[in-house]
Amino acid sequence: MEDVKELKTFINIWFIAISSMCYCYFIPAKISYGVPRLLSLLPIIALFCILPLSISTVHLVFPTFFFLVWLANFKLLLFAFNRGPLGLSSKQNLPIVTFISIALFPINPKENYNKLSTDAFPFLKQILFVIKVAILTKIIVPIYQYYNLDNIHWSFMVILYFTHMYIAFELGFIFTALLVKFVHGFEFEIDPHFNEPYLATSVQDFWGHRWNLMTSCILRAMVYNPVRSICTPTLGKLRGQMLAIFCTFVVSGLMHELMYFYMIRVPPTWEVTWFFVLHGAWTACEVAVKKAFNGRFRLHRAVSWPLTLVFLIVTGWMFFEQPIKNSVDVKIKNETLFMAKYAFKIHL
């Protein structure tokens, strides 16, 4: 009964979100950009921050937080100054359904669509999709079912949780893309969220080119570009870029800390923020070292790939420390087993 109530609340939240975006389309979009438009959008931004607090199921809280509190609110803040994907859409005078889709989901209007060049290796991607589903259903779910996670080494726990998080995110975004394509046909380019992050050869490659690319795009427009343009005249090109990278990671860390608050509902302990502070400093140093060598020296993939994975695993405990300490991982495990029983027809 409680699960049905949660699902009804989740549906109501998204009905409110869609209604709010109708308001943004008809009212703030017609107001001159800048402070006047920002003031007209602030009630919606505040509302989006409140909505996820009415649900507690982790698998419902996360997409609500990510789509509304993070992506939609950042898009609205950029839209206030006629920037970002919504700023572009206002210039193109798009229909209301398109505006709402861009605002609430990680998509962009498709430009210069070429069906033949959209995906160079469709068969390979289909194989990888099947492999990921198999890993989730045939490896991760049985581990959750038959093993006591308290007896598993922390490094394996990090690998397990990162793998589960990655596959679950990617599958969720694929289903979101299918929903958008069902509504709009093939008029939109669905932003890829992941580019096989397990193949990353550096921390910069992992965060900048392979992991959660839509968030990277929004953070680039929201934090990186403004900080770099402001600081470069004073600090110089390289230092301005390094500071912009670091600030972007700090903001990402704070948003993840906020995400944990929505999922755990306890005061923050800042481990995940320090995780992103560390990765921000490391990435900034990577950029500086690469520019210093100017392409004259580069580690072979056979060396840089395992080193990157080791760094991610060793520092990964900081990312998962707070959820594990507050038994959120147990809650996620139970929710995963519940969904596996009914969605994947696994007889547990």
TrEMBL record:
Its main location: membrane. The chain crosses the membrane at residues 12-29, 41-72, 127-147, 159-180, 243-264, 270-289, 301-320. GO terms for cellular component: membrane. Belongs to the wax synthase family. Keywords: Acyltransferase, Lipid metabolism, Membrane, Transferase, Transmembrane, Transmembrane helix. This is Wax synthase domain-containing protein. One of its GO terms (molecular function) is O-acyltransferase activity. Residues 192-277 form the Wax synthase domain. It is found in: Membrane. The keyword Transferase applies. The keyword Transmembrane applies. One of its GO terms (biological process) is lipid metabolic process. It is a multi-pass membrane protein. It comes from the Eukaryota. InterPro entries: Wax_synthase, Wax_synthase_dom.
